[in-house]
UniProtKB/TrEMBL annotation:
Provenance organism: Anisodus tanguticus
Acidic residues bias locations: 864-888
Chief location of this protein within or outside the cell: cytoplasm
Topology versus the membrane: Peripheral membrane protein
Biological processes per GO annotation: endoplasmic reticulum to Golgi vesicle-mediated transport; intra-Golgi vesicle-mediated transport; intracellular protein transport; retrograde vesicle-mediated transport, Golgi to endoplasmic reticulum
Pfam families: B-prop_COPA_B_2nd, COPI_C, TPR_COPA_B, WD40
SUPFAM superfamilies according to UniProt: DPP6 N-terminal domain-like (SSF82171), WD40 repeat-like (SSF50978)
The protein's name in its UniProt record: Coatomer subunit alpha
């Protein structure tokens, strides 16, 4: 049995598969109907309108409906899209056992304990026929898949077959007048809609189930006499064919498998049995320990079965459907039915080679599961699970191609796995001795090698090498040198797929894929919610894989995406260009055409093949928000620009990529204040003063414009800005401009006009304008302000601008391939305009003669002669920055030309040290120190299952800050950041970079744990818990040198985890003052944490005291004995323990019963603080290892507060020695 899905719930009494979707309905004894997605393992919906158990449920074949019947005598028809009951059919007088839709007509058949079978029309919502005849409960009734028959089973020990042909003729519209007249006569004189065709008697007790064969005239039934009977029928009679015996209790359900010649039955003896319908013998038995089975259901299209039992239900397959295959060059060798076949990809020719031995009829799920091929010897190894694992070696004759009738005797042997490792050698895994036997083609042992670890499967890993799989890791083992070539921690892998050049390998697990190189150096890990089925490498080095529902791709950097959606699962065998060759579950070869443009484009970006990227941009239809988002995320906004037509998006991307030209073009078309402001900010960052000025002009931001002129030393335009402010009557702006210019006379004038005569007088006096000061003093009269004496005054004047320049000077560098003329060329403007602007100083002359236009808010009429026309005429050259009225004797063009000819070409910058750290390291701490927090978090998530990074945020920042120092440069230059390397020395080569210096080390943690121990001893549990959690949060960011230190770090995690859990329980106990029973339990659990001996003694003394005070003397005595066994050094402690023991032994009883059994080993759940005894299911935190009850799966660990409970993780990586 291959279990695909399992639920835990109340007893399941009814099951039904959906014919198209991966859904199953389960009706429960509690009255709830559950709708599950068995592929995703999720509960989709629940329906709970029935009162009492629901025993029957069934999906409609084509409508979004299902029907249910329960112990409330009601039949309900539901619409699962509307999530509600449509109507209720009433008529039965007792419990309803089963309900079923007809496959063609709008009918429902129901069986009830009122000894009747009813047929309903669910469209008219009426009962159209009542079938009476049984004289006890009718346990089931169902329609024949094709004919007008109904079969029913009853506790009156009979199976009845009913003919409902007359009902069909009555309810279906007659085709002609004669038939209509016949129907009227039947209705008038009375007629029987359904008659008993056969009564099958043979069971000695009540019959619980009967069902039709899907195609043959057979019926199978199961009864309380523990027997399964097969019946055959013809047009006139029905008779018993055979009886299947083996069940030890009532047979509750039995059916024919829809696609195989077998019968499946289940029983209250807690077993499911599989029978050969032809030979009528038992094939397999599956048992549960505590659950009785009640119901079976089969999928109408797939090889799936479901069984309901006392505590839930399971969805399962009887045997594996994946065909065994092996690819060699242009050929695919695979097993179909009982033949070895070869498929040639180039010609798509399929040829039968030789017949192979079939497993015995009693062996379900023991067909071939792996195939290995040796092209030089034309030999095939086929492995199966027969007899606990065996292999068969076939030598395929050269002349057998195309014939397939050559029967040869295969060489066989026992072994869990077998693969070719050389031209004429193959390796066989012998699990019992954990060694590999190397054999020749005569099946003779040539060599034996002990494996380096407990191995349960071997895979090919190149000539002379094996990839050995253990439960949580894989290694590459060299058979000649008997050494390990590579080691990798993984979840349990199922399949191994090597790239054609053997440089990369994909390790496929149930829900994940690990990509590594040929030495098992980890590259990336993918996690899937749906099961991974197969995969293959394409010619570009991209891994293409399938899940149950999709074909997907994985790039070498770990990026993945969907290529195509699948209707049915397929198994990829090879990829040629845009064609994927697959095998389906029927063993048929299917070529699937895909569009590889998306992943090839991303691959070219990753490998920096920008010429191909440009070609694909020009020629393909790549577009969409997903592609734009991907390019932004990967740092290629300039590439994303080529896919975007929306001007707002283009503007944002242009700003992100620093492309001022395109941003300006988009801003002109959008023409919104916010966009002009953002353009000005970016242009200012790049030092492009011309565009900053233009943006401020467009937004009429006069304050910023004045300040721009101040910092760039443009005194002339600043003067004109002051006149503009005067015309617009903006006194503050005018005064600021006068301050910027250092124009004292203008400031005095402004203050005087504004009515601030004392301030004007002071300003004139301080700056030595005696005439103006005297005039103002006359006007002020007696109100002349006095100036302080003895103070040394300093003039408030701005510095004189030395360089009145425009845009910042730029180095002549080669433009990137994406910044060329691909997109800008056709948009006007162009780079030449801004090169001209850069040479032309400020570009335009200010004419104050037309200031009257400012009364209407038009600044462009003042700030340039040409700019007023630019807004109306974009085709005249943008800003017209090149039309300058320069003096005739200027030689600026000549100077510019000479300067350009001798411009300095910048050298190519080296790689930043932080980037080198990231590339060379797989340690999360070093990525954090480099400032690459994103990859550090991904590493921790993959290695330790960490999802909550809030506690690590400050540690990340501290690591990054602590691994860098900063040097002050020139006053106008930015501060220089310098990386600090660990182990640096002056003798080291300047081109060799060491790892980052880290501020956290193991010695610090040792000091911190001593402080935590001291706080624990002193009873300061909150402080101790804070210290222990700090240690637990710091450990993922520790780097040590040796393997021995790695073991010490792992040991420290275990120690700290025990203390955190224990202290959390103790603090919880102190909160529960009103619950003495729970207090005793938590105190008892605390004594089972792995504590230091002094702390254990204190915990035992605490538990002893609490239990003694509560009257649980037997438990108190137990804790006392444990305390005395530790030989307490404190005499007072020992004396108290002996006194308690003496008092307790006089009356060894417990007043209350605790959830605590010290005789049964247990661990404590970190969330609920209840014991998980040995043998019970649990889940663990992948980081700290705390145990939890299964219901806590997928939630955040309450002990470490970092990792997700039950998450897949490769393990702690804190040393470079673990990677070597």
């Amino acid at each position: 049995m291959l279990t695909k899905f399992e639920t835990k719930s109340n007893r399941v009494k009814g099951l039904s598969f959906h014919s198209q979707r991966p859904w199953i309905l389960a009706s429960l004894h509690s009255g709830v109907i559950q709708l599950w997605d068995y592929r995703m393992g999720t509960l989709i919906d629940r329906f709970d309108e029935h009162d009492g158990p629901v025993r029957g449920v069934h999906f409609h074949k084509s409508q979004p409906l299902f029907v249910s019947g329960g112990d409330d005598y009601k039949i309900k028809v539901w619409n699962y899209k509307l999530h509600r009951c449509l109507f209720t059919l009433l008529g039965h007088l007792d419990y309803i056992r089963t309900v079923q839709f007809h496959h063609e007509y709008p009918w429902i058949v129901s069986a009830s304990d009122d000894q009747t079978i009813r047929i309903w029309n669910w469209q008219s919502r009426t009962c159209i026929s009542v079938l009476t005849g049984h004289n006890h409960y009718v346990m089931c009734a169902s329609f024949h898949p094709k004919e007008d028959l109904v079969v029913s089973a009853s506790l009156d020990q009979t199976v009845r077959v009913w003919d409902i042909g007359a009902l069909r003729k009555k309810t279906v519209s007659p085709a002609d007048d004669i038939l209509r007249l016949s129907q009227m006569n039947t209705d008038f004189f009375g007629g029987v809609d359904a008659v008993v065709k056969y009564v099958l008697e043979g069971h000695d007790r009540g019959v619980n189930w009967a069902s039709f064969h899907p195609t043959l005239p057979l019926i199978v039934s199961g009864a309380d006499d523990r027997q399964v009977k097969i019946w055959r029928m013809n047009d006139t009679k029905a008779w018993e064919v055979d009886t299947l015996r083996g069940h030890m209790n009532n047979v509750s359900c039995v059916l024919f498998h829809p696609r195989q010649d077998i019968i499946v039955s289940n029983s209250e003896d807690k077993s499911i049995r599989v029978w050969d319908a032809t030979k009528r013998t038992g094939l397999q038995t599956f048992r549960r320990e505590h659950d009785r089975f009640w119901i079976l259901a089969s999928h109408p299209e797939m090889n799936l079965l479901a069984a309901g039992h006392d505590s839930g239900m399971i969805v399962f397959k009887l045997e594996r459907e994946r065909p065994a295959f092996s690819v060699s060059g242009d050929s695919l060798f695979y097993v179909k039915e009982r033949f070895l076949r070869v498929y040639e990809y180039s010609t798509q020719k399929d040829t039968q080679l030789i017949p192979i031995r079939r497993p015995g009829s009693n062996n379900m799920n023991q067909g071939p599961h792996t195939l290995s091929y040796s092209p030089t010897e034309n030999a095939v190894l086929i492995c199966s699970d027969t007899d606990g694992g065996s292999y068969e070696l076939y030598i395929v004759p050269k002349d057998s191609y195309g014939r397939g009738d050559t029967v040869q005797d295969a060489k066989r042997g026992a072994g869990g796995s077998a693969v070719f490792v050389a031209r004429n050698r193959f390796a066989v895994l012998e699990k019992s001795t954990n060694q590999v036997l190397v054999k020749n083609l005569k099946n003779e042992i040539v060599k034996k090698s002990l494996l380096p670890m407990a191995t349960d499967a071997i895979f090919y890993a190149g000539t002379g090498n094996l990839l050995c799989r253990a439960e949580d890791r894989v290694v590459i083992f060299d058979l000649q040198q008997r050494i390990i070539l590579g080691d990798l921690q993984t979840s349990f892998i199922r399949y191994v797929v090597w790239s054609p050049d053997m440089e990369s390998v994909a390790l496929l697990s149930k829900h994940s894929i690990v990509i590594a190189d040929k030495k098992l150096m980890h590259r990336c890990t993918l996690h899937e919610t749906i099961r991974v089925k197969s995969g293959a490498w394409d010619d570009n080095g991209v891994f293409i894989y399938t899940t149950l529902t999709h074909i997907k791709y994985c790039l070498p950097n770990g990026d993945c995406g969907i290529v195509k959606t699948l209707d049915v699962p397929v198994y990829i065998t090879k990829i040629y260009g845009n064609t994927i060759f697959c095998l389906d579950r029927d063993g048929k070869n299917r070529p699937i055409i895909i569009d590889s443009t998306e992943y090839v484009f991303k691959l070219c970006l990753f490998r920096k093949r920008y010429d191909q990227v440009m070609s694909m941009i020009r020629n393909s239809e790549l577009c969409g928000q997903a592609m734009i988002s991907y390019l932004q995320q990967k740092g290629f906004p300039e590439v994303a620009l080529h896919f975007v037509k929306d001007e707002r998006t283009r503007f944002n991307l242009a700003l992100e990529s620093g492309n001022i030209e395109i941003a300006l073009e988009s801003a002109k078309k959008i023409d919104e204040k916010d966009h002009w402001y953002r353009l000005g900010v970016e242009a200012l960052r790049q030092g492009n003063a011309g565009i900053v000025e233009y943006a401020y002009q467009k937004t009429k931001n006069f304050e910023r414009l004045s300040f721009l002129y101040l910092i760039t030393g443009n005194v002339e335009k600043l003067s004109k800005m002051m006149k503009i402010a005067e015309v617009k009557n903006e006194v503050m702006g005018q005064f600021h401009d006068a301050l910027y210019l250092g124009d004292v006379c203008e400031r005095v004038k402004i203050l005087e006009n504004a009515g601030h005569l004392p301030l004007a007088y002071i300003t004139a006096t301080v700056h030595g304008l005696s005439d103006t000061a005297d005039r103002l003093a006359e006007e002020l009269g007696d109100n002349v302000p006095s100036l302080p004496k003895g103070k040394k005054a300093s003039l408030l004047l701005p510095p004189t601008p030395i360089l009145g320049g425009g845009d910042w000077p730029l180095l002549m560098v080669t433009k990137g391939i994406f910044e060329g003329g691909l997109d800008v060329a056709g948009r006007g403007g162009g780079q030449e305009e801004y090169e001209e602007a850069a040479d032309a100083d400020w570009g335009e002359s200010l004419d104050v003669g037309e200031v009257e236009n400012l009364q209407h808010g038009d600044i462009s009429m003042v700030l340039g002669d040409e700019e007023g026309q630019e807004a109306n005429d974009d085709e005249e050259g943008g800003w017209d920055l090149e039309d300058l009225d320069l003096p005739p004797d200027t030689d600026t063009p000549k100077t510019t030309t000479n300067a350009r000819s001798s411009l300095f070409v910048t050298p190519t910058p080296g790689m930043p040290v932080s980037q080198i750290w990231v590339q060379k390291s797989s340690l999360a701490a070093e990525h954090a120190a480099a400032g690459n927090f994103d990859t550090a978090m991904r590493l921790l998530s993959r290695q330790l299952g960490i999802r909550n990074f809030s506690p690590l945020k400050q540690l990340f920042i501290d690591l990054h800050v602590g691994s860098h120092t900063h040097l002050i440069a020139f006053s106008s230059a930015p501060v220089i950041s310098v990386a600090i390397e660990r182990g640096w020395s002056e003798s080291a080569s300047p081109n060799v970079r060491g790892p980052p210096a880290l501020i956290f080390d193991f010695a610090q943690l040792e000091e911190k744990i001593k402080a935590a121990y001291k706080a624990t001893t002193g009873g300061k549990f909150s402080d101790a818990l804070r210290l222990f959690l700090s240690i637990l949060h710091t450990i993922p960011l520790i780097v040590v040198e040796s393997r021995r230190e790695v073991d010490e770090v792992k040991e420290l995690i275990v120690i700290v985890k025990e203390y955190v859990l224990g202290l959390q329980m103790e603090l919880k106990r102190k909160e529960l003052k009103d619950n003495p029973l729970r207090q005793q339990e938590l105190a008892a659990y605390f004594t089972h944490c792995n504590l230091q001996l002094p702390h254990l003694r204190l915990a035992l003394q605490n538990a002893m005291s609490i239990c003694y005070k509560a009257g649980n003397l037997s438990l108190a005595a137990h804790f006392t004995r444990r305390l005395l066994e530790t030989n307490p050094t404190n005499e007072s402690q020992a004396r108290t323990a002996r006194q308690v023991l003496q008092a307790a032994e006089k009356n060894m009883r417990d007043v209350t019963q605790l959830n605590y059994d010290f005789r049964n080993p247990f661990t404590v759940c970190g969330a609920t603080y209840v014991p998980i005894y040995r043998g019970q299911k649990d889940v663990t935190c992948p980081y700290c290892g705390t145990h939890f009850v299964p219901s806590h799966q997928g939630q955040l660990c309450t002990v470490c507060d970092l990792a997700v409970v039950g998450a897949d993780a490769s393990g702690l990586l804190c040393s470079a020695s673990q990677i070597r």
